[in-house]
Write a structure and sequence with these properties.
Blueprint lengths: L17 H34 L2 H9 L2 H21 L3 H28 L3 H24 L8 H21 L3 H38 L3 H38 L1
Helix pairs in contact: 1-4, 1-7, 1-8, 2-4, 3-4, 3-8, 4-8, 5-7, 5-8, 6-7, 7-8
Length: 255
């Protein structure tokens, strides 16, 4: 997870004009956002396929496979820079689409639970709020003049701390009321943290383009674009999950 917040660096020569950089950067960022949107769509397809096969989905949700998937997601997050920048475009694509598919498998039982409880509208609301939050914070990261590079260590450690807190809550807090309160608190913190992470990652993706524009070549830029989508996808899906959790708990409190 920590290594998702690092990026390759390199010298930026003066071979390109600022106009060429601006035009190339817009194209690069558009490609990154398109990859991310396709990843979200692919995850939705996986979710729908699993919801059409309840036996398989419940076997995953109730069995040890969910922990294997969770570990695989953490592993992909940790080793992502090596997978994307040490291999080929094919490996970069494979790692990205596998990541999106694993998320679909992991969240399908949660989505099915909301549908079964007649709370489908909350899914759409959570998606809209997550999309609006993502768009706003990504725009901030794209336009801000403040250098956020120094935030890498804090964001990495905070993310690891939240993962530990979620595992402790799941395994050791047995009182339903306390567990619900802790879960709500964690989700609020996660939404706040990953709003900042989204801005940080967007700025890092811009820097990846500038670092590689003059010397990296088209293949390197392509892998950078897919890696950028990988980073942003992870932040968006995390925002969506925890916003949905917040809405679900608030809605249950009102009923």
């Amino acid at each position: 997870m920590a290594e998702v917040f690092t990026r390759p660096t390199g010298p930026f020569g003066g071979a390109r004009t600022s106009g060429a950089i601006d035009q190339g950067l817009r194209s690069f960022m558009l490609g990154t956002y398109n990859y991310m949107a396709l990843g979200v769509a692919g995850t939705a397809v996986i979710v729908m396929l699993l919801m059409a096969n309840p036996a398989l989905m419940h076997a995953i949700a109730l069995g040890p496979m969910k922990w294997v998937i969770f570990a695989a997601l953490l592993g992909l997050g940790w080793f992502a820079p090596r997978l994307f920048f040490s291999g080929s475009n094919t490996m970069a694509h494979g790692a990205y689409w596998l990541y999106c598919a694993l998320w679909g498998v992991l969240i399908a039982p949660m989505i099915e639970m909301y549908v079964a409880r007649g709370m489908s509208a909350l899914i759409g609301q959570a998606f809209f709020i997550a999309a609006a939050t993502f768009a706003a914070t990504s725009l901030i990261g794209y336009t801000t003049k403040k250098d956020m590079t120094g935030w890498s260590g804090f964001l990495s450690m905070a993310s690891i701390g939240l993962i530990i807190a979620m595992l402790v809550s799941f395994f050791f807090i047995t009182d339903p009321g306390t567990s619900k309160t802790v879960s709500l608190g964690i989700s609020v913190v996660v939404v706040l943290l990953f709003s900042v992470v989204t801005a940080f990652e967007t700025q890092a993706i811009k820097s990846m383009y500038i670092d590689n524009a003059s010397y990296g070549g088209e293949a390197q830029l392509k892998r950078s674009s897919i890696f950028g989508a990988f980073m942003l996808y992870g932040s968006f899906i995390t925002l969506f999950i925890h916003i949905l959790n917040i809405l679900g708990m608030l809605n249950s409190n009102n009923n």
